């Protein structure tokens, strides 16, 4: 047996294509819409459905709509004039309430006049065996296998509730729906069509088993064990399994017992994907959808590299029939996908370690026209306000009078007679008010919004969360970007709209910029350019976020975008461009000089950071300008310039009273960089002139003077800063107070008094501050990126290490940079 697989199709609440089923579940998108089905007690029943198909009954019409979506995708690789003549093999559920035998036969005929029908999830494997016989006998060169089922209907859910699962056993996935399609052909037919093979199926087996969903027979796995052992031997242990291993107790136990008996056939660490555990119970569609999911997952490279190409897919029907198939996927990423007039596009692959631009079939981004406001609206309102008010008063009085007359003459008819017996409540009913109905385009838009929100949240975690989270957070962020790129033909347009809706949140700007950059094409860069010019002119944090997002991207055209932004008349776009060019190492020295001379503070600070990235010899030419900025610019710009000068060795700036007055609370960071315990009175005086902040607490803690304990303890009474004060106290004195009492001032006073610290020393975590202690902090993974950067600045200032240390990139590169710096720092101590 050897069937070449040419086309795939998948439709379910997870998406409307095979690619959706690869990238959306990996990203946890989209959240399922609330179920509109309720039980007799009025409580919602957990059920999944495709929101672009209105839920009502899980009848033949609904199944036909699901199946046609999968069939259309699978047949897209075949010439249109030949698709209609391909024989169909249809897998449906067995007859049940709402789906009688006649309706199922009509469903099969609607998919193909001479379609052959099989029942149950394992029917897919019986159908494959039948297809192989026909193709081997010369009866055609191709066949289409379709599987479909749905529980998104009143009758289907009521019938399912009739046999509740035991509360002591593994709970099955929620009821769902879906359809899958596989276009298989002989090698000769595939060659004649010129279609790239997705893979091949080399064996398919099925057999009845003992335990079923309708009885309580013990699960012995005899049938499945025999089926797995009967498959042809692969080149090595099977590395990937696609089945129902997490879809209820029967199927879970069946596979566990089978693998225990056939351990030699499977790799000990094989990749296992259960589609039903991700999207819900699929009934009779599980077999075909599992096979299609296997090919799609391996084709798109969404399985671990060690999973290889060979796999098994299996399923169990409700009547106990077991089925299994052995397949081999084509080389990861092999083949092309149709893209209309643009020609063939490469198969989309997931991101790994970096953001690159991928080509997908989509609509081009066209900037919407600027809507001009119609003049005179406000004047019209002002002029007509008096007349409208008088008319409203007259109408209101008449309405009240009429209502009073109507109330006086209102004699309600007699109420209907109450029924003598209450009708039994239906087992399941559809609450029309709870139905979520969207178009397919709206569904994809919801995926984009959901994933972009998560990208923004994970971007914030990259900066503010513990660095030990990054090995998990960054791959998760890349999976969200994958899902966005895969989210239909309007995905880029929806991302641009998302960004424009959230112009007040810098993390959303990060999400918008990095997601747009993941699309190939000049229009994606044009969308970034446009959005950057829509940002408020005081949104410096957006300029930083956009530059950092784009610095994580590797794609052509980014250098041109950075140059265009840095030459913009819009100050925030200009600052983003300067930052980006500097981070990419593309900003010339003349560009840094121009940025330092700019009139906008955000651009000046971008120029200062660019100057910091220069080699020390080139940096010296800008020292005088930095000194000027310390006395002339705003507090933020002056602080950035002073920070760089202090790191460069000008520690006397810490004691410059005029500079401290100009910087305000920014000056607390200078004390952390180069201050000594004897400077505490001056720092305390500075703190007394300003309202405390989280950043000030952090700086005082890193300053490390035990005399600052009283000031920090006082902040425990400030509800807005209590947690930050406790964190600052831990930074200075260590975890000497149990977590339950961290907000108690008395507990901290007792613990600090017991430590008997030298008031003339500097401390970190209760230990004397040293290079080794600070380096250990940085390498621990407990700190956020913000905290690590502050400690790196301390080490650079005190050890005279002028070279910049970039920890803003992806985790692996940032950790390498940090480790190299800490190695140098330890050697200088």
List keywords for this structure.
829 residues; alpha/beta; 10-stranded mixed beta sheet; two-stranded antiparallel ribbon; 48% helix
Quick overview:
By secondary structure, the chain is an alpha/beta fold. The model is unreliable at 338-343 and 372-395 (pLDDT under 50).
Topology:
Elements: E1 3-11, H1 18-27, E2 37-38, H2 60-74, H3 80-83, E3 88-92, H4 101-111, E4 116-119, H5 123-136, E5 142-150, H6 154-161, E6 177-185, H7 187-193, E7 199-208, H8 222-229, E8 238-242, H9 249-261, E9 266-273, H10 275-279, H11 286-299, E10 310-316, E11 321-329, E12 336-337, E13 345-346, E14 355-356, H12 377-408, E15 429-430, H13 440-464, H14 470-485, H15 491-501, H16 506-517, H17 522-532, H18 540-551, E16 553-554, H19 558-566, H20 571-583, H21 589-596, H22 601-612, H23 616-619, H24 623-632, H25 635-647, H26 657-663, H27 667-674, H28 680-688, H29 694-703, H30 709-714, H31 722-733, H32 745-755, E17 763-764, E18 767-768, H33 771-779, H34 785-799, H35 811-828
Parallel strand pairs: 3-4, 3-5, 8-9, 8-10, 14-16
Antiparallel strand pairs: 1-6, 1-7, 2-15, 5-6, 7-11, 10-11, 12-13, 17-18
Helix pairs in contact: 1-11, 1-14, 2-4, 8-9, 13-14, 13-15, 13-16, 15-16, 15-17, 16-17, 16-18, 17-19, 18-20, 19-20, 20-22, 21-22, 22-25, 24-25, 25-27, 27-29, 29-31, 33-34, 33-35
């Amino acid at each position: 047996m050897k069937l070449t697989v040419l086309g795939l199709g998948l439709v379910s609440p997870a998406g409307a294509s095979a690619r959706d089923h690869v990238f959306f579940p990996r990203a946890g998108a989209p959240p399922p819409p609330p179920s509109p089905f309720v039980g007799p007690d009025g409580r919602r029943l957990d059920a999944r459905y495709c929101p672009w198909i209105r839920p009502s009954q899980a009848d033949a019409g609904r199944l036909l709509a699901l199946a046609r979506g999968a069939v259309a995708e699978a047949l897209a690789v075949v010439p249109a004039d030949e698709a209609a003549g391909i024989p169909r093999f249809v897998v449906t559920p067995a007859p049940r309430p709402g789906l009688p035998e006649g309706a199922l036969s009509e469903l099969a005929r609607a998919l193909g006049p001479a379609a052959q029908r099989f029942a149950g999830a394992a029917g897919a494997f019986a159908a494959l065996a039948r297809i192989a016989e026909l193709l081997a006998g010369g009866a055609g060169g191709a066949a289409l296998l379709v599987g479909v089922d749905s529980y998104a209907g009143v009758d289907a859910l009521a019938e399912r509730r009739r046999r509740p699962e035991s509360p002591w056993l593994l709970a099955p996935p929620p009821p769902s729906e879906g359809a899958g399609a596989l276009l298989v052909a002989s090698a000769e037919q595939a060659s004649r069509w010129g279609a790239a093979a997705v893979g091949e199926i080399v064996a398919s087996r099925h057999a009845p088993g003992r335990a079923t969903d309708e009885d309580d027979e013990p699960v012995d796995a005899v049938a499945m064990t025999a089926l797995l052992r009967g498959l042809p031997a692969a080149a090595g242990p099977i590395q990937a399994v696609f089945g129902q291993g997490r879809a209820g107790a029967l199927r879970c136990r069946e596979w566990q017992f089978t693998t225990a008996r056939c351990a030699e056939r499977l790799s000990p660490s094989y990749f296992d994907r259960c589609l039903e555990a991700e999207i819900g119970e699929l009934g009779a569609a599980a077999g075909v959808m599992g096979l299609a999911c296997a090919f799609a997952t391996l084709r798109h490279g969404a399985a671990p590299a060690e999973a290889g190409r060979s796999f098994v897919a299996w399923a169990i029907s409700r009547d106990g029939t077991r089925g299994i198939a052995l397949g081999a996927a084509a080389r990861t990423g092999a083949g092309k996908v149709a893209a209309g007039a643009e020609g063939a596009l490469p198969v989309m692959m997931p991101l790994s370690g970096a953001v690159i631009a991928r080509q997908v079939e989509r609509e081009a981004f066209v900037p919407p026209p600027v809507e001009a406001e119609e003049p005179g609206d406000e004047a019209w309102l002002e002029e007509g306000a008096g007349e409208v008010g008088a008319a409203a008063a007259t109408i209101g009085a008449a309405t009240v009078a009429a209502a009073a007359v109507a109330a006086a003459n209102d004699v309600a008819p007699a109420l209907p007679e109450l029924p003598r017996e209450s009708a039994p409540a239906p087992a399941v009913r559809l609450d029309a008010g709870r139905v979520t109905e969207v178009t397919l385009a709206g569904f994809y838009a919801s995926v984009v919004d959901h994933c972009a929100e998560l990208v923004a949240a994970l971007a914030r975690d990259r900066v503010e969360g513990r660095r030990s989270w990054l090995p998990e957070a960054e791959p998760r962020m890349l999976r969200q970007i994958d899902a966005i790129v895969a989210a239909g033909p309007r995905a880029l347009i929806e991302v641009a709209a998302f960004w424009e809706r959230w112009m007040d949140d810098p993390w959303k700007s990060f999400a918008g910029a990095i997601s747009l950059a993941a699309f190939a094409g000049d229009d994606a860069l044009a969308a970034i350019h446009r959005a950057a010019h829509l940002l408020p002119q005081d949104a410096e944090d957006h300029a930083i976020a956009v530059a950092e997002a784009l610095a994580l991207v590797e794609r052509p055209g980014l250098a041109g975008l950075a140059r265009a932004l840095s030459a913009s008349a819009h100050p925030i776009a200009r600052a983003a461009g300067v930052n980006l060019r500097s981070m990419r190492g593309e900003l010339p020295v003349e560009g840094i000089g121009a940025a330092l001379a700019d009139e906008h503070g955000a651009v000046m600070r971008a120029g200062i950071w660019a100057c910091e990235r220069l080699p020390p010899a080139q940096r010296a030419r800008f020292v005088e300008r930095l000194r000027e900025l310390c006395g002339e610019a705003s507090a933020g710009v002056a602080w950035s310039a002073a920070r760089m000068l202090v790191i460069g060795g000008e520690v006397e700036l810490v004691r410059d009273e005029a500079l401290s007055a100009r910087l305000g609370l920014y000056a607390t960071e200078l004390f952390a960089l180069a201050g000594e315990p004897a400077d505490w009175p001056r720092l305390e005086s500075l703190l007394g002139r300003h309202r405390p902040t989280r950043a000030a607490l952090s700086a005082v803690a890193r300053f490390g003077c035990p005399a600052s304990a009283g000031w920090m303890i006082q902040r425990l009474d400030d509800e807005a800063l209590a947690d930050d004060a406790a964190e600052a106290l831990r930074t200075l004195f260590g975890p000497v107070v149990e977590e339950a009492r961290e907000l108690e001032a008395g507990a901290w006073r007792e613990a600090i008094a017991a430590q008997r610290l030298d008031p003339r020393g500097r401390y970190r975590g209760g230990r004397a501050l040293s290079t080794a202690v600070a380096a250990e902090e940085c390498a621990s993974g407990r700190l956020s990126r913000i905290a690590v950067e502050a400690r790196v600045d301390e080490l650079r200032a005190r050890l005279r290490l002028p070279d910049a240390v970039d920890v803003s990139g992806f985790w692996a590169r940032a950790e390498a940079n940090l480790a190299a710096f800490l190695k140098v720092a330890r050697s200088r101590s």
